[in-house]
User: Fold this.
Amino acid sequence: MRLLLHTCCGPCSVYPVKQLRESGYDVTGYFFNPNIHPYREFKHRLETLHEYAAQVKLELVTDSNYALEDFLLRALSFKGDRCRPCYEQRLRQTARYARNNAFSCFSTTLLVSPYQKHELIKEAASIIAEEEGIPFEYIDFRVGWQEGVTVSKEMGLYRQPYCGCIFSEKERYYKAGRGRS
Assistant:
């Protein structure tokens, strides 16, 4: 079965790619992440993903369209969890590419992270799969999170300190009430 795997970065791809290949999938990576901010971070993650893909001979499709403004408009205008429009934007693009290029199904490396919202991803992807007419493979890759961390460090891959969006960057580094620095 040909599976298109939305890939957020190289390190998060380590365990899902290994697991999917062991399960008999023919895996192709797909990079589409207009949420990543700043642009230097976007480029660094993309370069690291290319480095990883070369090391493990992973075919990789790159949509390097940096549609940050579109992501921000979606996130800022959405009433509710801002992660939902982010997941939807990236997974819909992945599903469409998969459908239009004769893949059997699609999935995402987001499912390896214990920091991502699995139920929200699963719900959004299921709706998108039905609307776009291509199956979504939900696999809880979190069991391999630590293995992926270890292997990515051994491979010397850049490991990012936040999910990628400007909102998570703020949550990680900005502490309200600290005054001027």
